């Protein structure tokens, strides 16, 4: 039988190792650091985080997404789903294991697109965990979901490029040592062309890169910068992936990164469902436990069904990536569905907890604030729906059936 939903021994072993490290090493360290709800001094916080990173490296739980020859674990995407879903049981897990955004996506990008000199200067420090990076594409003046509209310009001047523009929501910019910046370089292309942009490697800080502010979001000022770029000069050798390939590079980066987000979101949704059920089993009201009330049971049932669908979608999309098949539709579907399920499941968990769920005495408030971001990060819901519809219509035009657009499954 070709379809087998049991875990391969190596996948189960990875999941167990990560789960154990999170429970026995990360969770106690963070509990001690944040005892009594206090905010630790930044120096102490960083000391604990880097100590945890060292322990993760010693355990061989480092760079799960990178090839072994580059110091990683060489995991395929199915195995990576096991890893990421366990790592995200704690907020800092992906960072401890050096597989957090935006560095994770930038590592993939540099490995695929960078030349040897660029890999030596930019990729290797990321892999060692001694530097961090950011990805600068989104702009306030144009729709972030349409990179063909980018207004940041790079103009050739001898052996250099002069860049001017405006970027925002650049995650991690203030702690980054370099940025992958997308700018328009080509004028002799049709309107809306995907060959108009080029990616540049920008060392930070440098003259012309002006970090204006951290944009305040629903979950506070946590590193999403607004950047004004004024007459910033970079040599021709700072182009990443070739002139005019900025759009292709961005899409290459976002494909697997979207699925990695889903893997982490599943962990958060499962945590919320666990909390929902635990609360229902321990809260008595109007003559019975909440778990015995039909209204609560329906919320639990809906959440369980959605989480089941999330897991199947992510595993199937990961399976297709590992097999080298076209995974774009499946990843778009997973990204849309998991992001929305995450919001609904956490919302239900808050409802079952009542006023307590609305307070900061539980992690649900923070989870809900971060979850709302999921519906537009790496492509808004509506963009993914548009692409899914386009591919479904095209599949029918090509074959007379929509089967290929619904996973190509043998049903």
From TrEMBL:
**Domain Acyl-CoA dehydrogenase/oxidase C-terminal intervals:** 244-391
Which N-terminal stretch is annotated as signal sequence? Answer: none
Q: Which superkingdom does the taxonomy of this entry point to? A: Bacteria
Q: Where are its TM segments located?
A: none
Question: Does this UniProt record's set of keywords contain Ribosomal protein?
Answer: no
Its Enzyme Commission number(s) read 1.3.8.7
Record-level GO cellular component terms: cytoplasm
Q: What's one GO BP annotation on this UniProt entry?
A: fatty acid beta-oxidation using acyl-CoA dehydrogenase
Q: Name one Pfam family in it.
A: Acyl-CoA_dh_N
GO MF: flavin adenine dinucleotide binding; medium-chain fatty acyl-CoA dehydrogenase activity
> Quaternary arrangement and interactors, per the entry?
Homodimer.
Kindly provide the name given to this protein in its UniProt entry: Acyl-CoA dehydrogenase
């Amino acid at each position: 039988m070709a379809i087998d939903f049991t875990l391969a021994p190596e996948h189960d072993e990875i999941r167990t190792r990560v789960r154990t490290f999170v429970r026995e090493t990360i969770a106690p360290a963070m509990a001690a650091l944040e005892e009594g709800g206090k905010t630790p001094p930044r120096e102490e916080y960083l000391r604990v985080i880097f100590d945890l990173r060292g322990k993760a490296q010693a355990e061989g739980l480092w760079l799960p997404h990178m090839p072994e020859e580059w110091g990683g674990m060489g995991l395929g995407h199915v195995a990576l789903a096991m890893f990421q879903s366990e790592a995200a049981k704690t907020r800092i897990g992906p960072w401890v294991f050096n597989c957090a955004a935006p560095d994770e996506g930038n590592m993939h990008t540099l490995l695929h697109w960078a030349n040897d000199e660029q890999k030596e200067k930019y990729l290797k420090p990321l892999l060692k965990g001694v530097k961090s990076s950011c990805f600068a594409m989104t702009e306030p003046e144009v729709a972030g979901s349409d990179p063909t509209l980018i207004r940041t310009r790079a103009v050739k001047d001898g052996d250099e490029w002069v860049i001017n523009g405006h970027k925002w929501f650049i995650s991690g910019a203030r702690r980054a040592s370099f940025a992958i910046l997308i700018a328009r370089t080509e004028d002799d292309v049709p309107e809306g062309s995907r060959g108009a942009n080029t990616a540049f490697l920008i060392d930070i800080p440098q003259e012309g890169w002006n970090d204006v502010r951290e944009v305040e979001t629903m979950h506070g000022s946590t590193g999403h910068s607004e950047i004004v770029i004024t007459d910033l000069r970079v040599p021709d050798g700072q182009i990443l992936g070739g002139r005019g390939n900025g759009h292709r590079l961005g899409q290459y980066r976002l494909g697997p990164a979207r699925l990695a987000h889903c893997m982490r979101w599943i962990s958060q949704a499962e945590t919320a469902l666990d909390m929902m059920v635990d609360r229902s089993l321990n809260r008595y009201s109007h003559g019975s436990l909440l778990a015995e009330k039909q209204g609560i049971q329906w919320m639990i049932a809906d959440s369980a069904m959605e989480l089941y669908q999330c897991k199947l979608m992510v595993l199937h999309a990961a399976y297709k990536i590992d097999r080298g098949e076209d995974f774009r539709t499946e990843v778009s579907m997973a990204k849309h569905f998991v992001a929305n399920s995450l919001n609904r499941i956490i919302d239900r968990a808050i409802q079952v907890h009542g006023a307590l769920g609305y307070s900061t005495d539980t992690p649900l408030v923070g989870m809900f604030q971060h979850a709302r971001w999921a519906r537009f990060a790496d492509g808004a819901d509506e963009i993914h729906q548009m692409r899914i519809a386009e591919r479904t219509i095209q599949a029918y035009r090509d074959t007379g059936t929509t089967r290929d657009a619904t996973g190509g499954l043998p049903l």
